Amino acid sequence: MHRPGGYVVRVVSVGLVSVTLFCLAIWGLRWMVEVLRADNFLGHEILRVETAGLIPEKERDPNLARSSYAEVRVTEGVFVNAFGLVEDYASTDRLFLDNPVLYGSATDRLKVYCGPRESRSVIYFDKNEGLFVYGRTMRRREDWWGPTERGFEAISYAGRSGIGAQVEGLERFAEMPPAGVMLIDPNEGGRLGLIVFDAGQRRLLRYDFERGQMRRGEEMEEDAKHTIVQMGELWGDHWRPGVILEFSWIGPRVRRWVPEEPEPRRWPIVYGERDMPGQQIQYWVEGRGWVSPREIGRQEPAKAETEVSDESAVMVERVVPVAMETSFVWPMGGGFVPVLTADGTIHKLDVETFEFKGALGYLPGLGLEGIAKESPVLSQGQLLDYQVRPLFVDGKYRGILAASLGCTGDRVALAVFSASGLRMKQGVAYRNVKTLGHPGGPLLLACQYLVDNLNPPLLTLAGAGAVGRMEPTAGQRALFVAPNSLLSWWLSINSRRGWRERLLGIFLFMLPGVLLSGVLGWRVGRDGRQVGLSRRVRRWWVVATVLLGLPGYVTYRLTRPGVVQVSCRSCGRLRRPDFERCQHCGWGWQVAPGAACPSWRIVDEEVGVFAGQGEGDEGVERLAESGQEGESNQ
Amino acid sequence: MWTLMKWEMKGALLLSGAPLILVAIVVVSIVSAATLGREPAPRGLPGYLVAGFGVVLFALPFCAAYAGVGQMFNDRRHGVSRFLSTLATSRGRIAVARVLAGVAYHVVVFGPLVVTYAAILERLEYPVSGVGRLVVPAFVVAVLLSFCCYAVGLWLGGRGGVVVPWFGTGLLAAALIALVVIKGLSAEAGLLLVLVTVAALAGAWVRFRDGAL
């Protein structure tokens, strides 16, 4: 017999599980299509922008073969980033470092800041305590592979109220605030310091750990221009810089006559790697020491230009790099820290006066002329990844290179800013546009269109509404709400169109899904009538199926009552035997007074079902309906 | 309640053997690697801890799911609930005892693992707290995942036949593991797992309450 509440519990349980499973499957399909489409975009498509104006004196050479350029590539990491467990592993693995000084990273995600190597000083943010911890790593013993620095000695703690040797009495930070490491008094050898933006107090705090001092700045205005979101090295909040956007700068090349090498140059042997704070990973190469990945296998510039000509050697013309010293790291003791504010602008923050000393540039917008019109500046929360690199040539600051990757991972922009903060050049690449131009691209786009339309319509709409509101990495991992659908993409690049056009676009993008849901809803309504669901329950099912699409239909099929109906003795229509009362007339198993149902029926396939006395036209219609249901059930 | 729990545990005992052996192998392996082997690699987490956790995350949920199915299968085959309902108890108490048996199963399976991981991470003396940063967040999600699979096993195991209880449970367990792979060891993943667990337990309860024993 039917028990109260049981049906609802069953429907909710099955519904929740089927929606979860279905969304998982859709997520997997979408991910797969994205990876296939990526073949048209990643690796093959490198966005390249010339940076000739940054170092004019180096490029005035009449023998210039190629100007300098910056390039950015979206790596396969954009898809690996979609798996939260991978990031958990990578970030946890690097958090548990034996030796943070040697291997530590300065990303906010790891929350480990390192001082000069010889000082072995380390600052990290302790999430549990809500405080910055300053201390030193300790050398323990010599192992067969060399000295092992193990253990950590905490010296002092820093909170919102000051510095102390104990955690007690210090006001804690609710979460990791934007912070940048710097050297205090660099002319006197320098001490490791930290500058922090406390969003609660809206003040800058500067900690001098060795002297146990904290300096508090003036209260800052409460607007996006004065809200600091990141300091120091500016890149997306991922477990490792460069995991999604691979960024590089190639210097100018000139033609030179050089002695022909007697035999082809061999690739150097790489012995190990290290990851210094704020720098690219470096490799230990035989005979060269620590070098960047770009330098591996490349002829040393100085050697190329200052070659000593040998009269007996055969001279050949080669394209060689111009000799110069480059750096892509902000100096720790430069007296300023670069900061990114909430409006996407990059400022130079004076660590002594706590004032912004001019804009260095901004995170470039992703608008492509003729396709999208949007702001040229993007904020941090709108991007899946970004990277900002300064360019120092021969010790002189030349400008910055800034790259942005759209929140849906399909648009990338690269901009070059001069030393005065003026934008010199910018390039933008679109995946969806490029996909159409590649063989098989339209088919893949069609696949994504179909996969998007398999998603429950309600969740597709919610996903479109979540574009720009959801943290991009969370959006990649979102199971239920998908802000990276084609509809979301279309809406994001047409944000300035009128509501009628947008509504029409939504309708066209969702048309197959809505049609499918409509058909399924109709089937559910018809089947619900046949199995004896009441009008109210049927209405709920139809609405749920139209909104949820396939998972709603699957839930209905798995929970529909599997009972054989019997004729109601009061109204004559088919009723559920597991209900105490008829779902049509509300009477129990007793016959209602004056409502005796005729015991006979005439069934005619063309006309319908007719019943006997007292029912009138309405009764005939109702019985005709029940008769059809009865036939269907049989 | 203890008597009821003992009856319920008997059902899952056979299928609990496999995870216990698995856990014993993992514990012995990582303890021996940590004490007898060479010092850990000079950076990051030791590989044996990561590999051990891989077993925890990818194998134990299947074991828990099939423990739940086995419990229900044993119940139907030997008429445990039918017999228990002749005693002075209710279906509600039987269902609670069944879930408590599952909780006990998870304590027995995960307890040694948590203690081993915590002890090894403390011994390795990392600058940050190994227990706070790794063991707690990782094992909370792992236990929730395993218990969720157990609840799904109870739910689908209550159905007759072979295909849905055995293959359906495996499929659902795989999907739940995929959910954790996508969401990571986050609070969001934990919340979703709790929701699915509640849904599965509610479904199992309704089926047990309304069905014939």
List descriptors:
heterodimer; A: 634 residues; alpha+beta; six-stranded antiparallel β-sheet; 14 helices; 27% helix; B: mainly alpha; 8 helices
Describe this structure in words.
The complex is a heterodimer of chains A (634) and B (213). With 634 residues, chain A is of the alpha+beta class. Chain A has 14 helices and 32 strands. Chain A is elongated, with a radius of gyration of 34 Å. With 213 residues, chain B is an all-alpha fold. Chain B is built from 8 helices and no strands. Chain B has helices at residues 2-35, 47-58, 60-78, 80-84, 91-123, 130-157, 163-183, 187-210. The radius of gyration of chain B is 19 Å and the shape is elongated.
Q: Please summarize the sheet with the most strands of chain A.
A: 6 strands, antiparallel
Helix-strand category of chain A:
alpha+beta
Largest sheet of chain B: none
Shape summary of chain B: elongated
Number of strands of chain B: 0
Q: What is the assembly state of the chains in this entry?
A: heterodimer
Q: Give start-end ranges of low-pLDDT stretches of chain A.
A: 98-110, 266-279, 298-309, 368-376, 605-634
Pair of chains with the largest interface and how many residues each contributes: A-B, 47 and 45 residues
Rg of chain A is: 34 Å
User: Helical percent range of chain B?
Assistant: over 70%
Order of SSEs of chain B: HHHHHHHH
Summarize the topology:
The complex is a heterodimer of chains A (634) and B (213).
Chain A: H1 6-38, E1 47-50, E2 64-66, E3 69-74, H2 77-80, H3 84-95, H4 100-103, E4 112-114, E5 121-126, E6 131-143, E7 146-158, E8 163-164, E9 179-184, E10 191-198, E11 203-208, E12 213-216, E13 228-231, E14 234-235, E15 245-250, E16 253-259, E17 270-275, E18 281-285, E19 289-291, H5 301-305, E20 315-321, E21 326-327, E22 336-341, E23 345-350, E24 356-362, E25 383-393, E26 396-406, E27 411-418, E28 423-430, H6 431-436, H7 441-454, H8 457-465, H9 472-476, H10 486-493, H11 499-530, H12 535-548, H13 550-559, E29 566-567, E30 574-575, E31 602-604, E32 608-610, H14 616-633
Helix pairs in contact in A: 1-7, 1-13, 7-11, 8-10, 10-11, 11-12, 11-13, 12-13
Chain B: H1 2-35, H2 47-58, H3 60-78, H4 80-84, H5 91-123, H6 130-157, H7 163-183, H8 187-210
Helix pairs in contact in B: 1-2, 1-3, 1-5, 3-6, 3-7, 5-6, 6-7, 6-8
